[in-house]
Design a protein that fits this description.
Layout: H1 3-17, H2 19-31, H3 42-64, H4 71-90, H5 106-111, H6 116-126, H7 156-168, E1 175-180, H8 187-201, E2 207-212, H9 220-235, H10 240-254, H11 260-269, H12 277-290, E3 294-299, H13 307-320, E4 326-332, H14 334-343, H15 349-356, E5 359-362, H16 368-382, H17 387-394, H18 414-431, H19 437-449, H20 451-459, H21 461-464, E6 465-469, E7 478-481, H22 506-513, H23 519-533, H24 548-551, H25 566-573, H26 577-589, H27 593-601, H28 611-625, E8 628-631, E9 635-638, H29 643-650, H30 656-661, H31 666-676, H32 684-695, H33 707-722, H34 730-737, E10 740-746, E11 752-758, H35 760-772, H36 774-781, E12 782-784, E13 796-799, H37 801-807, H38 811-820, H39 833-845, E14 851-852, H40 858-869
Parallel strand pairs: 1-4, 1-5, 2-3, 3-4
Antiparallel strand pairs: 6-7, 8-9, 10-11, 12-13, 13-14
Helix pairs in contact: 1-4, 3-6, 7-8, 9-10, 10-12, 13-14, 14-15, 16-17, 16-18, 18-19, 19-20, 19-23, 26-28, 32-33, 33-35
Amino acid sequence: MNKYSKITLSLIGLLILFFKQIRQLFEDVIIVPILSKIEPNLLIDLIFLIISFLIFRKLYLNFKNKTYISGNQLFVSLSILAFYLFIRITNEYNFYAFTFFDKIKYFDILFSYFIISLVTLILSVLHKKTIRGANTDNLFVDSPILNITEDVLDRNYKAKRITEEIFQTQANQAIGFGITGEWGSGKTSFLNLLKKEIGKKNFNDDFVCIDFNPWLNLGVESIIQDFFDTLQTTLKPYSEDVYREIKQYSDSVLSIGNSDFTNSVKNLFGFTFKKNVTSEFLELNKLLKKLDKRIIVFIDDFDRLQANEIFEILKLVRNTAGFDSFVYVVAYDKSYLNTSLKNLNIPNPESFSEKIFLKEEHLIPVTEAQIEIFIKEKLIANIPEKTEEIEGYFGGNSRALFNINNNIIPLNHLRDAKRFLNSFINDYKIIKNEVLFEDYFHLKLLKFKFYDIYILLFLNRSEFLNDKGTYYGVGGSKYFLKNKYENESNNNSGFGLRFKDYNNSILAKFMVSQLNYSKEDILKVSKLMLRLFEAENYKKDHLSIVFPKNYHKYFKDNLNTKDLSEDEFKTALNSNFNDLKLKIDEWKNSNKLDLAKYRFYEITLNDITTKDQYEKIIKAIFYLAKSKVNSSFYGHQILNFDYNSLSYLISDKDNVISNMHYEGNKSDLKDFIKEQLAVTSYSTFESNLLNHIVNENFNEENFILNTEEIKEYLVEYFNSFLEGSEPLTNELWRLFNNCRISHLDPLQGGSYRRRYEYLEEAKQSLIGFMEKNLDHFLVLFINKNSFYRESESDKTVGLSDNLKNNIFNSYDDFEQWLRLLNADELEKPTLFRDEFLLFFDKLKANNYNMVEYDFTFPLIIEKLEDENRR
């Protein structure tokens, strides 16, 4: 019974004892001078009707809000009601009633307020709160275990052993046991196991267990005060003397009542009330021994305190509250304790705890096998329909991931494992039939620890992954990690350079240069990334993340971006093309364009039922792909679209599209696709798309355009750009490189060698464009030695290989072209050709190897100096 109930009972008792006197006082003070002068009327009726309405409203709100009614509140309300009913039934007073219904008295309305608690409680019992069970069972609460059945780490045998040691220790001095372990190692759970074992052996109630959590307090004084208050409350049933002595001792320790005023009085009269704390300690210690009980104090969350607070707790254990009948069991992180003591300048902090605790029990860290078993069992219990897939994963090569010694994956203890499962299970349940468990599991591990890398893969996959690796089977091309060699001129394919050293990947380089990742973290990321995109077994399941058509599915959880709902996307897709364009613009302005793009990836030919719907979707994809967006990493650029996904939608392989939507008329489909590729709506996207199609194992029978038609478009895009462009832009070289077409040359034994060749029309267009901006291009084609410096020996320059390999057939052809140019007929006068030819002659004499040359033309000097500064 709490203090409020005690006060209520006391008042009721006084009321019963002095009922006559109180009634007489009530009549003299309230009834005769006030209530006897009032007579019922319509105005008073109205007032009490309003009060009635407010009482009913209060009852309704209680029911609606499922208000909790405490036992004390109910007891007080029923006590008041009982007293009123007693007075009302005895008819000792003439209660005034409503004018229109004399059975209901005014006071009935007032005291009906106290029936609200009872009615609310009854209604709450009849209408239980609805418990949402959809996701709750799937969440693993990060709380300590309470029963032995939950002891997955098999630590109860230690709890039994320490219990035996506590029971066998003589009560001639205070004893301290330290339970040490790192954060999240299960110290609180171990204390609970220890309490259970002590409870089993405490047949004769010889031991009194006290839980003290210092972390709930603020400041040193608050901690000490709460400690002694806890002792008082727990030991009071065993002795009132102990209760008082603890209070007196704690007051002395804290110097309670020692104010400036009392100090002034003491000094004025020349005496003090100094308490002898030592004698009080001894008296309390003797009294505690007379209880003939051992007091076990459990102190948890010790390593969440400040350094000075930790030191004060140690003083309590060792000195201030070091009573002979006390046993202290303290859980803490040893390294945190040592650091705290060191910060307080305590000498030899590493051995300081040995003076406090008779024994320190070090909890062995959880093993990788225990974490693996825990995760596996919880996954199977929550997703039983995927048991075979889960068993296959954990029974295979996963153990390399769960290697705590090498710290590959950040699941170092069960707390981490629970937090990870909370983020994994519910998300996986939503998409379990659309993804591969192994890949989804690895990606979620990446998200759990390295969220910024996860976001990069979501928003900028084209920068860090390529799909040049071809998979002959269901699924199409596959994603691989881009490596640092792919952009080098001597490697045109990039596919042959598969690697196992993650440090060679573009993503790893980005982690170092832009994100400042440590080598240790790069190693952790590499284990996951190589599992996802560089697995030794290239025969991936068709649901794997490596296939572009599946990639977006793996990111269908709540990212830190504005979401695009399924209803919103479907509604937009069902609207006409103009409305769909407006919606795409709206998605762009609200940063949802990437999400919309991945929704378009999901569309297959089987999802499209009519010709109008087909053409609307294709036009929308082209419009979306050419939308200008800003990237925080790569600046202003077009959004782009997955070339494989789009080519699948426009290829008309086996005449599927023309038969389905154009009544077998392939030319109508071709005309529609040509409208989308028209040069009038030019952007680099169309050129990139057609270059990708024609160079990736192109088969004319499987595409709506033949090779010659694609070549014409590529040249037209390039020429269209040249008509209004400045010479030195990245887009110029992008479009020119798109005019590079691959050829398969047969070799002996039935094999082929891939060879690339630039379209002659594009080369001639570029040469004609060079004549309009001759000096700019001549400067561009000069390359410096990679160690170009001020010293003469390093001041060597040469010509770009692209000049003879990709634009002219040889240096001789280039020289002939340059010398035959009539300077007077050029649109822009040349100031550099003569000096360049002198440089060329010297280079030619040296068999086109780099030579030393001192230029005088300002633009080339500026270029070389600028490159030197870099």
